[in-house]
Amino acid sequence: MVPSTVGRMLLSHGGEPSPTGGPVARWSVEQVLALAPDDASRKAGTRLGAAGPWTGTGRDAAGAVWGLCKGSGSTPYRTVVDTTGPAYSCSCPSRKFPCKHALGLLLLRASDEAACRPGEPADWATVWIEARRGRAAVTGGPAAGGDTARGPADPAAARKRAERRAERVTGGAQELQQRLADLLRGGLAATDRSGYGLWEETAARMVDAQAPGLAARVRDLGAITGSGPGWPVRLLEECGLLHLLDTAWLGRELLPDPLAATVRTRVGLPMSAEGAPVRDHWLVLAQYDTPDGKIVARRIWLSGRESGRTALLLSFGAAGRSPAQALPVGVTIDAELTPYPGGGQLRAELGEQFGVMAPAGPPPGIAAAAAPAVYGDALREDPWLDAWPVTLRDVIPVPAKDGWQVADAHAESALPIAPAALSRPGLWKLVALSGGGPVTVFGEVGHRGFDPFAAWDPGEAEEGGGTTDGRIVQLI
């Protein structure tokens, strides 16, 4: 991603005030968390991302958000944010920008549309907002915001910040390469004696280097150690992938643009939806939430009827709140999606919607035998993919020696069901839905097997021996 203004990286429509004079776009949870100056602020801000400590919250159409946050004293902290800068003002004594109260206010706004209702700002917020916008009117752009601004909101300053962060990530990647080399020199089989502290300390160093993607992969290594028979082999495989990511970051200037964008995403740099919008009739295949500490990630899978593309909408909710974005599974929406850069371009942002939702049957599927090749093709675009979405036609869930598998109803081929799915009730829903007969199933295929997310009721028998595809059943 070419560096641009901070606002461009954070606002879904590009970070500038709406050219039509409409409301400024609401930030997502992940965009707010990307603003945090350190991990401690991120955690503290997340704890304040619920309505409990806040009173007097509100927002205006020009991008200001304000509220009073209860603290340890008798007087609440006065917090106001101008998202067009961005810039922050808070009466707390913190020297961090943004402080935990500003982060909490933005997380509250991101996860709960009704928490900050439109209106006129309070008197204490009006003083700062008007002063800031007065300076913007004089300079012809967003004001710096005085002592509480995050910094100049011009492209040159943004480029410098991006360059500084890239330098820190490069330093972290070089350090991680050395640590992996030391690990291999000492022997992987001995790492179980070091305990989890070895991995947590290395992950903390990657957080300091502002490379959260590298930190997450290091923590995953710690979970492999001592995880059961064959764990040194699995650890070696994951260390190889981590080394590959390190090497790719250090040589990113030599990579094709899509692969370079994938590497930036995998390392943990923020990206924005930048591709050409794709209008289609999108079938909602599945929707499910995954808890990650106090943040809840919601994944919505869509399939385009005309384009044949599969897309992923990703949203977040803070402090135990469900993400605001939700779509009914099994319906089609006539809408525009804007893809994010990177290999495969699966992730997208939902844009304008047209018409009304309508129910629909499953998308065209593939045979179980063809699924591994589809995953293999996707790996060429993103070598760090754990799985790839596919729709399987005419498969039957059957027991296997070490679990379950989905077998092709018309050929001697089958895919093992991924271990993660074996403990979920959805597996038994799939078995009951099939009743020993073929069904259509959507899920992800990867090196661990096939993970089913949704299936279609085979329906009633038709004349000529066919069947009608009925309702969709969520399996996750």
Task: Please characterize this protein's 3D structure.
The protein has 476 residues and is α+β, with helices and mostly antiparallel strands. Helices cover 34% and strands 25% of the residues. It is built from 13 helices and 15 strands. The strands form three sheets. The protein has a six-stranded antiparallel beta sheet, sandwiched between helices. α3 (39-47) crosses α4 (100-111) and α6 (155-186) packs antiparallel against α9 (231-250). It is globular.
Short description:
Helix content is 34%, strand content 25%. With 476 residues, the protein is α+β, with helices and mostly antiparallel strands.
What keyword list fits this structure?
five-stranded mixed barrel, single chain, globular, six-stranded antiparallel β-sheet, 476 residues, 34% helix
How are the strands of the biggest sheet laid out side by side? 12-11-10-13-14-15
Q: Helix amount, in percent?
A: 25-40%
Report how far apart the termini are.
33 Å
**H/E order of the elements?**
HHHEEEEHHHHHHHEEEEEHEEEHHEEE
Largest sheet: 6 strands, antiparallel
* Structural class designation: alpha+beta
Q: Mean pLDDT, as a whole number?
A: 82
Instruction: Report the C-alpha radius of gyration, rounded.
Output: 24 Å
Number of strands: 15
- How much strand content do the residues show? 25-35%
Low-confidence stretches: 1-24, 139-153, 460-468
Query: Which word captures the global form?
Result: globular
Tally of helical runs: 13
